Amino acid sequence: MRLQTVILTIAAIQALIPSIGYAANPIIVKGNRFFDSITGDYFAVRGVNYYPRPNAGPLDLNNLDLFSNDFQHIWGRDLPQFTALGANVIRLYAVDSEVDHTDFMCGLQAEGIYVIVDLGANCKGCEITADSAPACYPASYKARGEKIIKEFARYDNVLAFSGGNEINHRTGGNPWTWNAPCQKKFIRDMRAFLQSCPTLRQVPVGLVVADTDRDDNALYYNCRTDPSDELENAQWYGINTYVHCEDISDPAKATGFNMLRDSFKSYDYSIPVVLTEFGCVSPNFPTVDGYEAQRTFHDAKFMNMPEYSDYFAGGVAFEYSTENANSMATSAYPFTTYGPQNYGLGYFSPEDCTDAGTNCTFQRFPNFDFLKEVYTSYDSSSEPALSNYEIPPNHAATSNCPAGSPALSSFQWLSDSSPGEACPSSSGGQFQCTSRESTVAVEPSLTPLPFVMLVATDDTPTPTEDEITPTPTTAILVENSQPFTEHGGCRLG
Q1: Nearest Cα residue to 120 out of 190, 58, 222
Q2: Fewer Cβ atoms within 10 A, N terminus or C terminus of the chain?
Q3: pLDDT tens digits, one per residue of 312-325
Q4: Distance between CA 171 and CA 125 in Å, rounded?
Q5: β-sheet bridge partners, residue 36
Q6: Which DSSP category does 162 fall into?
């Protein structure tokens, strides 16, 4: 009788899982939208770019992995701020596959927060370079990407992998076609690796571009230069764009933002589009509580309104904390004046804090509360659920390649002859976080969760469900690292 009672209790718990899910169910893609794989709810990205660089000391560098278990005093300080902000996504620029990220990822998962993980970094052999194709894709980058995928695909709260950040700013004045084939080939290689590993969750692989050559880049990464190659196009598209630089609350008057929407409306895009950096800094924004140029983030509200959500899956504000090293020349600590690099939702104090002896404390700017108001008041009730969403015909096909698009088959790729990573065992391809206290704590699932990518194309039927499994791993400076190059608010590494 006792055994029977236990079995019934487990069955009852399992029966509840599809309806309530847990803090961060795997997200799936259907057409150009994200959905919760368990609840079926529409998932709108409301994120923040995260690189918690201290004001001074040995960690005052770019390209560090500050997200390992060894740096809980850093990210553990910031996690409650993400929750207070109402963010459901953070974006990371550089990670090290050799260190343990379990505590970080599980801490985020308990709060229902997902991660976009960049596979590149600003170090030799770690990214697409400024060389022309095919030399711009070093074989070592393939190995790096596969190792990071093996490390992070195990976690249910990885939203997506990014194959690179703004490689279109590394053309040396040459046309966009200069190194774009390398980025496209890398995406294809990462998709092929994931597809070859049935023990890994099929996390979407895409990229992030700067907002230049908008039409050509958008169409190229969603097209197939070989129509029979179903792995060639990206599975999501990120664009770093700063187009709303006035304190305008009426979306009808938001000229730059509406031009951006109209561009993507004309593309009839078949994959999700995320504004992976947004939040223009401008003296046109008001002074609040003694802080100049406080962004009001009306664009964060626009992008998730029904008239825009057909084209955008949400966005990731740039950035969590103002980086003293970048801002000091034009807006010095405590950053009360306008400066073109003063992008933070807050800053770290005291001025000489290092997080390696003198811990930093996060101080919010007024613009934190403006973004919080938008994120925490978001209402998705007007959006379709997974169960009743039908991919519109105009979002069902990959794009036609723009004129002059280089075919991947026209190059000889070093990555084709380099050995790939071995797939993890069935036990190594998933990781279940243990239950912990959380403002939104829910017990983890008792069974592996499905991940579905339903993407209709112009010449293939919509795929059926693919089984995936949910997803363990100090500042470490990536080997031969160099400082990031800054372009406006964009970290080019």
Answers
A1: 190
A2: N
A3: 999 999 999 999 99
A4: 17
A5: 27
A6: E
Give the span between the Cα atoms of 68 and 78, in whole angstroms.
Answer: 14
- Nearest to residue 75, comparing CAs of 101, 96, 99, 93? 101
- Beta strands 114-118; 205-210: pairing state: unpaired
Q: Could you tell me which of 300, 423, 441 has the C-alpha nearest to residue 368?
A: 300
pTM of the model: 0.85
Q: How large is the average pLDDT for residues 265-287?
A: 98
Question: HSE of 407 in the Cβ direction (CA atoms, 13 Å)?
Answer: 7
Contact 105, 433 (CB under 8 A): yes
Q: Which domains does the chain have, with CATH numbers?
A: 44-380+396-440+458-491 (3.20.20.80)
C-alpha 453/C-alpha 462 separation (Å) is 9
Q: Please state, in angstroms and as integers, the Cα–Cα distance from residue 481 to each residue in 34, 65, 152, following that order.
A: 34, 12, 22
Say what the pLDDT of residue 431 is: 83
- Average per-residue pLDDT for the chain: 87
DSSP 259-281: HHHHHHHHHT-SS-EEEEEE---
Residue pair 271/220 in contact by the 8 Å Cβ criterion = no
Minimum mean pLDDT range among 18-22, 135-139, 224-228 = 18-22
Q: What tokens appear for 66 in the block?
A: 């500050």
pLDDT of residue 434: 79
Count CA within 13 A, CB hemisphere, residue 147: 15
Nearest 5°: phi and psi at 23? Answer: -55, -35
Least Cα distance to 471 among 111, 158, 36, 39 occurs for 158
Give me the residue label for tokens 């190194």. 179
CA dist 248 and 237 (Å) reads: 27
> Contact at 8 Å (CB) between 146 and 472?
no
Peptide bond into 350 cis (omega under 30): yes
In this prediction, residue 247 has a pLDDT band, given cuts at 50, 70 and 90, of: very high
Q: Please state, in angstroms and as integers, the Cα–Cα distance from residue 180 to each residue in 39, 148, 236, 382, following that order.
A: 37, 22, 16, 37
CB 450 within 8 A of CB 224: no
